[in-house]
Design brief:
Enzyme class: isomerase
Distance between the termini: 20 Å
Protein name: Peptidyl-prolyl cis-trans isomerase
Family: Belongs to the FKBP-type PPIase family.
EC number: 5.2.1.8
Order of helices and strands: EEEHEHEE
Largest sheet: 6 strands, antiparallel
Number of domains: 1
Pfam families: FKBP_C
Radius of gyration: 13 Å
Shape: globular
Helix content: under 10%
CATH class: Alpha Beta
Length: 119
């Protein structure tokens, strides 16, 4: 797989988490609170500006879902290894409303996540 490109989003940002499978994997299923190994890219919904990408660092990342933003905790379980999923995450399930101190507070975020492995 290669780094995905996230197209500009149209229309107003959704108020709820949106989960879209781009590719359905055939491997092990991610479970709530489990360990996952992923590649991902994230952009700001409104500007399309990329703010993070494991692809650009040249290596995948593994972590427990329980330590991540709510949009990932809710959006990754059910995914199967080998799959690619797009998550559109409103501020309430990302870094909170504007003014919460994180640079992405108040922003709707779009991630494309490749699930490489389930630990």
């Amino acid at each position: 797989m290669s780094k995905p490109q996230i197209e500009a989003q149209a229309g107003p940002a959704p108020k709820d988490l949106v989960i879209e499978d781009i590719t359905v994997g055939e491997g092990a299923e991610a479970v709530e609170g489990g360990m996952v190994e992923v590649h991902y890219v994230g952009v700001d919904y409104e500007t399309g500006e990329e703010f993070d990408s494991s692809w650009d660092r040249g290596e995948a990342i593994a972590f427990p879902l329980s330590g991540l933003i709510a949009g990932w905790q809710e959006g990754i379980p059910g995914m199967r290894a080998g799959g690619r999923r797009k998550l559109t995450i409103p501020p309430e399930k990302a870094y909170g409303p504007a003014g919460m101190g994180h640079p992405l507070s108040g922003r709707t975020l779009v991630f494309i996540i490749d699930l490489l492995d389930v630990k």
